[in-house]
Amino acid sequence: MGMTSDIAQFPPDLNGDTQNRTTITEMPHNIEAEQGLLGMLLIDNMNLERISDQLKAIHFYHPSHQNIFAAIEKMIERGLEAKPATLKDYFEKDEGLEAVGGSAYLGTLANEVPLINNISDYANAIYDRYLRREIVRMNQDINHEALNFNIEKDAQAIIEQAESQLFTLSESGVAQNGFQTLKDSTAIAIEVIEKAFKTQGHVTGVTTGLTDLDHKLGGLHNSDLLILAARPSMGKTSLAVNVAYNAAKAYAESGGKEGAICGFFSLEMSSDQLATRIIADESGISGDDIRKGNIKETDFRKFAEAAHKMSQIPLYIDDTPALSIGAVRTRARRLKRQHGLQMLVIDYLQLLQGSGSAQSSGNRVLEISEITRGLKAIAKELQIPVIALSQLSRAVEQRDDKRPMLSDLRESGSIEQDSDVVMFIYRREYYLSREEPEKKPGEDDSKFNDRYEQWQSDLANCCNTADVIVAKQRHGPIGTVSLHFESSVTRFSDLEKKYD
Q: Which of 41, 98, 394, 431 could serve as a FRET partner for 328 with CA atoms 20 to 30 Å apart?
């Protein structure tokens, strides 16, 4: 490119592109590209705008080049002109620069660069060598971890750490979207509106497979964290499985035009238990009968048909217990990379673990806060909806009205704060069935019979129904959606209710 090693005055082993060298002592670098880029910046400071999103001082190989780039950035940020003459005073006593010619080297950089070169090409070459150096360093760290046994870090933890580091490295140089004109933003908005208009049910996000819930939420939207909370036995795992399976099924049946490729972290139930629930739903055979073996020979045909259908559905289950939020992030990234993850479900939030520091503090509220922030970060980073199931506090059981409220979210206000949607499941049938009237002392038969008949009537009215209470929705209305719930096959489905 016109700048030679005698002009640069670098030691021979630091000059040129060492991409193809294989000696252990050398790290990949391209000194000429670094010289060329710095020279172009000194010639025209406006060039910084073209590469500032991609390139930082740390990406340069030679320490003096790191210092020069950082100084150019600082001067331009302050509204000053970064030229060899204005930078000279900053580098008069720079020992690193002395080795390559002192402050006069700044003038050499500016004078020896052909103006026809593209600064983006230099930036790409510099960043490529930086990535290669980081991969080498990472490999050295992994080798050290693998060869030095640590009781607190097994081989699987080392693999997860390596995957996380690689993903972070691959994303670190990707320029952000930056500012968009209103014209561009409007065009995107019109596309979303058009999709909603053309989609049956006016769903712009991932379908839940439940018409009324889709109507309330508009589907499940990318980068949203949705909390699904309930007391035990309300059916939160069942609803989560239904939604994940419905979305994955819609994806398979539409050829990817609708629905989503789903990941399901089941920290409480095993993958085969979840599969049994889905088999019961698909075959229409009671899950209790399946577990107890109360099935007919003819039922196996239904099982075979259900299993065949399920084999085509892109639903991936990870039933590893006691995962950390870091491990969830790593595994979600891996699934995204390998299969194209489009929706994630975590069952359930309180079974996740925070980082080592959050755990060691003994503050569970702090740990839950870290977990919810981490889940929201996963949703934004991977651009997918994340559904996290959550327990509710026992305060619900101590009230006459058992309908959950936002204040019932267990252990942390950050669950409400970090989420985009909060939904509760409430089944009045569950509570009412446990409140069968008993005859009071001195109560005549007529009054008791009236009370008992009223109880039977109320129980019949709420039989096989469940309310999904949308208590918070950042981008839409709140309210209650009533669903049909068939406990024998753990299936939530639409009630006979239509919207205009």
A: 394
